[in-house]
Amino acid sequence: MNLTINGLPITVDSTAVEEIIRRHLLNGSAPDPLRAFDVAAAARAHIGNIQLQKGEVRIGSYAGPDGKTTIAILLPQKKEMLDFDAALAWSRSQLPEGKSDAPNRIEALLLFLHHRALFKKDDVLWTNEQYAAFSGNAWGQYFYYGTQDYWYEGHELLARAVRRVAI
């Protein structure tokens, strides 16, 4: 579904709209066919109210482990050649009050799937997730093949920042 907000085109996937309807507007129950149009319109309006700032890109939406739907937005800034700790510190400093972060693994995959043109082929993007099996390693998204792998935290990779809107 394509929307235009303040002259900016925004694409909302139908799966996200259905999930929002089911979880947040129908309390997890199946929709009444007579209400479906009104509920879908309400969900579209809620998603459409999210304002993108200049240079921001809507990454996509997903349901987190808490069951809440999150819309992830890529911020325009980027910083190359940072180790893991510096990348996290930089990404978390891009908006006040801790409202920005490095992408998680789901968001990094969505960036590869839907926005790989924003990255160089050989970019490896730090995620905000450490690799549990080996201390001192963290997950990165490789844009050449689309794979995710763990990297030693001392490697210098690409850092990007995201903001998240829970709906």
SSE order and pairing:
Elements lengths: L1 E4 L2 E4 L2 H12 L10 H13 L8 E7 L5 E14 L1 H9 L12 H11 L8 E7 L6 E6 L5 E5 L4 E10 L1
Antiparallel strand pairs: 1-2, 3-4, 4-8, 5-6, 6-7
Helix pairs in contact: 1-2
Report on the structure:
The strands form 3 sheets. The chain has a 3-stranded antiparallel β-sheet. Strands 5-6-7 form a 3-stranded antiparallel β-sheet. A two-stranded antiparallel sheet has the order 1-2. It is an alpha+beta fold and 167 residues long. It is globular and about 40 Å long. The chain is built from 4 helices and 8 strands. It folds into 2 domains: 1-51, no CATH class; 73-167, Roll (Mannose-Binding Protein A, Chain A), CATH 3.10.100. It starts with a strand and ends with a strand.
Search tags:
Mannose-Binding Protein A, Chain A, globular, 8 strands, 2 domains, three-stranded antiparallel sheet, alpha+beta, 167 residues, 4 helices
